[in-house]
Amino acid sequence: MTQLPVYYYSSTSNLIRRFAGRLHAHDGRPVLDLSDRAVRTGEASEAWVLLTPSYKAGNDAHATLPAAVRAFLRAPATRRRLVGIIGSGNRNFGDHYQAAARELARVSGRPVIFEFELAGTPEDVVECARVLAAFDERFIGRAGRK
After folding, report:
1. Longest C-alpha distance within the chain, in Å?
2. Nearest partner of 72 among 114, 113, 101, 33, judged by Cα
3. CB-side neighbour CA atoms (13 Å) of 23
4. Contact 51/86 with Cβ under 8 angstroms?
5. Distances (CA, A) of 77 to 3, 65, 82, 107, 134
6. Among 31, 90, 96, 124, which is least packed by CB within 10 angstroms?
């Protein structure tokens, strides 16, 4: 069965990139890097999942969603095709842990389907892949096997 692609953004820390790479290595899931201009300025052509970090560290004046993610979400078709959100955060952010994923879920009406801290653990990768497989079945399986 075809898998939902995961679009992600990772800062220079590469924590998210490492998680996305391990997710791809685990089950071959397509992962697309929003720091790549061609990806960021493109449009999602099918149902997709967002993997985003949260950077809000206790300052309500700062945006939590990275600019590259906001840029990708500007296309109406891309926003419509978003089916779920995976969040990465740092528990040191306190109440702002996972703020970007949770805020985007609130405004988009799409669920946060998985959360992990920093680069995640091997167990996080396995569990996230399991959750994504259920989403594959839900959003791709019904439309027909490819």
Report:
1. 46
2. 33
3. 32
4. yes
5. 19, 19, 9, 16, 23
6. 90
Burial grade of 20 (CB within 10 A; 0-12, 13-18, 19 or more)? buried
Query: What does the block give as tokens for 34?
Result: 């929003």
Q: Which amino acid is at 61?
A: A
Full pLDDT tens readout for the chain, 146 residues: 589 999 999 987 888 999 999 999 999 999 999 999 999 999 999 999 999 988 655 555 555 788 889 899 999 999 999 999 999 988 877 777 788 888 899 999 999 999 999 889 999 999 999 999 999 998 887 554 43
Contact 81, 42 (CB under 8 A): no
Reduced to 3 states (helix: H, G, I; strand: E, B; else coil), residue 146 is: coil
The token pair that represents 92 in the structure block? 């040191």
